[in-house]
Design brief:
Helix content: 25-40%
Number of helices: 12
Mean pLDDT: 95
Structural class: alpha/beta
Low-confidence stretches: none
CATH class of the largest domain: Alpha Beta
Shape: globular
Strand content: 15-25%
Distance between the termini: 66 Å
Order of helices and strands: HEHEHEHEHEHEHEHEHEHEEHEEEEEEH
Length: 421
Amino acid sequence: MADKKITIGESIIAKIAQKEGTPFNIYDGDAIVGFAKRFYKAFSWAPEFINYFAVKALPNINILRLLKGVGMGGDCSSLPELRLCETAGILGSNIMFSSNDTPDEEFAKACELDAIVNFDDITHIEAARKACPSFPKKVSFRYNPGKDRTGNALIGNPVEAKYGVTKEQICDCYRIAKENGAEHFHIHTMVASNCLKEDEIVETARMLFTLVGKIRRETGIVIEGVDLGGGIGIPYKPEDKEMDIESIGSRIHALYDEMIVASGLAPLKIAFECGRCITGPFGYLVSKVRHVTHKYKDYVGLDACMADLMRPGLYGAYHHITVLGKAGLPLDHVYDVTGSLCENNDKFAIDRPLPVVAKGDILVIHDTGAHGTAMGFNYNGKLRHAEYLVLDGHVRCIRRDETYDDYVATQLFEPQVVDLK
């Protein structure tokens, strides 16, 4: 099996491991910025193009500030994510607020920040009207195409998904929003996650461009922007092919000219809300081998666990593993790579060919820059680990190790009586 390259110098990783200990997450800030600029260049033809970085992918204020510097906004789904964007200076139309089963305080905060409020259901219009001092001026609706499109294992079949409004509801949604005082209108969808098929991204654009025309004809409402969602995947496996972002940009440009410009619907703002492809390939989970054991199978036991990266245990997702300093050695041993949780699915890899592994080796788990530490948890009392950012020749700590005091900070050691009167 072909190997994958680590974009951060191995000596840097080794020095952090020696000085600060393991495990930790580390991100290549220069590579993140480089890809972000490449993404924007591919859509430089599009009026007011923006990518709303999916905050859920890597909710660190330092990452948000870094991406704001190259023009990105924030895709938020919760009150803490809205507040992170606010702290990073991402405000107004640079926030796309998309949530479901949304509490009143989240609608209110989104309105306070003058964000685009992306409604997940027709009933949420009334909920926002009651929750906000005044109805949001900038609205969007998340479209669920139902049987007209298929999803995938991560996003689900649209017919069975809890997200979005139906084809039959979509025009009524815009009419009702306008009656309530909305003045600026957008449309959004999210029908794929970690997609490596270029055609699916382009067809999503075609679907939304078609809806822009339908809404104009049936309601007279002008759609100002389309959010094509996230979904652009990354090559987790060595044999996977990276998505050609330039080709996607070019093909959507041609579709824009054909369907939007030619129909008199221009200008139309184009947006994405990608997170995974922006930071995912440029993050690594670094862990030390505690034990190598031989039972019915051979096991490599790490000081990281599923609490640091749950995707393999949750989805059976593949994450490539490099044994530091052993590049080029034959992959002639087969291991399950595991953590220390009291769960048998606490495995980073099953039957993975690797070079011979010894206690004390440093393993680098690839592509953890999105949906890695963000999905962490504290089961078994496992504490969250530090995050580092490599940028402009410097290594910066952007999240310290969690401590026991952090872990118990919300517990009341002297329980309080709740007065129910």
